[in-house]
Design goal:
about 260 residues, alpha/beta, 2-enoyl-CoA Hydratase, Chain A, domain 1, 6-stranded mixed β-sheet, 3-stranded mixed β-sheet, 11 helices, about 15% strand
Length: about 260
């Protein structure tokens, strides 16, 4: 099945578990993104895999993009998104096997996008969900501009985006962002029970149901990802983005000026 630098794989029966493992925050660099795409390919092609679980190691699900790798002026954010997260989100939605998100801690920015691209989500009580993008002066990516309103409604999506506050696991359950919340020490057990049940089910029917649901609700996903990338290029060239990245790396509050 192969070994990866930043993702730990474990298969038990028909359940393949992929644990993001890039300390301290499971933030994505391009290597980790390519590894996750490879895992999705394995899950798609290997008939012994009937359900895929995505989780994080340690106390964080994923902080999203490694901010240190996207300092101002070094890359086109539009090209970066086309090369990375747009491919990831499309592949996750195209996988006609169940993907269970085991949300073990904060899911931020692109990490939130990946969490929302799983089919069913079980969250630990300590998990939080943070839009994240505005914190570094950026707009939506990773399909969040479509997935969030679909799952939690327009008002709550705007609240998450504009306030950038951490939504708790219990709030996420109440809003419909997750399917289940369990004590931290029961997360692995609860996810294993769900994933094993799904792996023993009619995966072909699951896959076609997922295809039908995606067509009915996510028909504009590709166009949305492309539009997000086009928009992301604009704030990516602003002083506010440069300040947001600097503040993040220096662990201080940003001083945005709207420029």
């Amino acid at each position: 099945m192969g070994q990866f630098q930043f993702i730990n794989l474990d298969q038990s029966g028909g359940v393949l578990t992929a644990a993001l493992n890039r300390p301290k925050a499971n933030a994505f660099n391009e290597t980790m993104i390519e590894e996750w795409l490879s895992v999705l390919k394995i899950a798609d092609r290997d008939e012994s895999v009937r359900c895929l679980v995505l989780t994080g190691t340690g106390r964080i699900f994923s902080a999203g993009q490694d901010v240190a790798a996207i300092s101002r002026g070094e890359l086109s954010l539009r090209e970066h998104l086309h090369r990375t997260y747009n491919r990831v989100i499309l592949k996750m939605h195209a996988l006609e096997k169940p993907i269970v998100g085991a949300i073990n801690g904060p899911a931020v920015g692109a990490g939130l996008g990946l969490a929302l691209a799983t089919d069913l989500r079980v969250a630990a009580e300590s998990a939080t969900f943070i839009y994240g993008f505005v914190g570094i002066g950026l707009s939506a990516d990773s399909g969040t501009s479509l997935a969030m309103p679909l799952q939690i409604g327009l008002a709550r999506s705007v609240e998450m985006a504009f306030t950038n506050r951490a939504v708790t696991a219990e709030e996420a359950l109440d809003w419909g962002l997750v399917n289940q919340v369990v004590p931290d020490d029961r997360l692995e057990e609860a996810v294993a029970e769900l994933a094993t049940r799904l792996a023993g089910g009619p995966t072909r029917a699951y896959g076609l149901s997922k295809r039908a649901i995606n067509r009915a609700t996510m028909a504009l996903l590709k166009e949305t990802l492309e539009y997000e990338a086009e928009l992301q290029e604009i704030p990516g060239r602003t002083e506010d983005h440069a300040e947001g990245v600097a503040a993040f790396l220096e662990k201080r509050d940003p001083r945005f000026k709207g420029k």
